[in-house]
Amino acid sequence: MNEKIIKTLLPIFCGLVVLSSGCSTIEKGRISKLSFFERKTDVIPGLDPPHQRKKLIREKGTKGATASEAEKEILVAQLVYEYQTSPDPNMRREAVDALAKIPHPQRDRYLQEILQDDNPFVRLSALEALGKESKQGKMYSGSQSDLTTILIDRMKADPDKDVRLAAVRILGDTFAKDKSGDSHSSVVLELGNLLEDKVPAIRYEAMQSLQKVTKQDYGNDINRWAEYMRYARGEVPNLPTERTLAEKMPRVALPMFK
Question: Does residue 46 register a pLDDT over 60?
């Protein structure tokens, strides 16, 4: 229906509703009691409203960050119960975000299971939680190789592009500080395989992570990165030439040079 017609008819409709209720309603100031003007609420007797539940969930995560080991285990169990019993993906994500604040081995086990959630935003939160670092260092309680396996699995197999992007980014950030050997080379090869991914954003993020892991600066030149991967696989003897200073400078189109 035309928007102008709607704007014209709406006041008329409201007037008819008021008139149909009788003038006595207006005279006695009871117009707000009409069903048309009823105030809506999300409060259901016997149940906490969503905003209150979210607040309680967040408080558990904040408390768990500095709690004792015994308290952490209890809070993790409570948050997992919140996750498992909620049909609402927004509430499940709140539970996962709260879990992300609590460093505990049980938390990591549950987060790995949550990576199979039907909702991509919930999976994304779980992946971010596994790769999360605190001021004291990484929060993941397992080994570096276990975390690497999880991240590689998600970046290759997850059906959602944003989850895959997060896995590639976290993998690059994790190994940017890593000095080990074998796992380092296997990560480079896995990231190199993504240079041929059909999603342009994945190819771009793979180049960013390769730059962090290898400490080589080929920018966003996918041909140079492809050549580097040939070198990493032992197919060519020499590294590709580095970018020149002119190539590293940002390209700004100034009017005077047009």
Answer: no
CA 153 – CA 174 distance, rounded (Å): 15
What is the reported pTM?
0.75
Q: Residue 214: CB partners within 8 Å, gap ≥ 6?
A: 188, 228
Give dist(CA 24, CA 224) in Å, integer: 82
Domain residues of the chain, as ranges? 49-130, 143-240
Q: Domain 49-130 belongs to what topology?
A: Leucine-rich Repeat Variant (1.25.10)
Task: Please say whether the beta carbons of 102 and 75 come within 8 A.
Answer: yes
Residue 159: CB partners within 8 Å, gap ≥ 6?
120
Q: Secondary structure of the chain in the HEC alphabet?
A: CCHHHHHHHHHHHHHHHHHHCCHHHHHCCCHHHCHHHCCCCCCECCECCHHHHHHHHHHHHHHHCCCCHHHHHHHHHHHHHHHHHCCCHHHHHHHHHHHCCCCCHHHHHHHHHHCCCCCHHHHHHHHHHHCCEECCEECCCCCHHHHHHHHHHHHHHCCCHHHHHHHHHHHHHHHHCCCCCHHHHHHHHHHHHHHHCCCHHHHHHHHHHHHHHHCCCCCCCHHHHHHHHHHHCCCCCCCCCCCCHHHHCCCCCCHHHC
pLDDT tens digits for 137-148? 678 888 888 999
* Number of neighbours of residue 17 by Cβ within 10 angstroms: 14
Distance, in Å, from the CA atom of 99 to the CA atom of 235, rounded to the nearest integer, reads: 45
Q: Of the segments 21-35, 70-84, 126-140, which one has the largest average pLDDT value?
A: 70-84
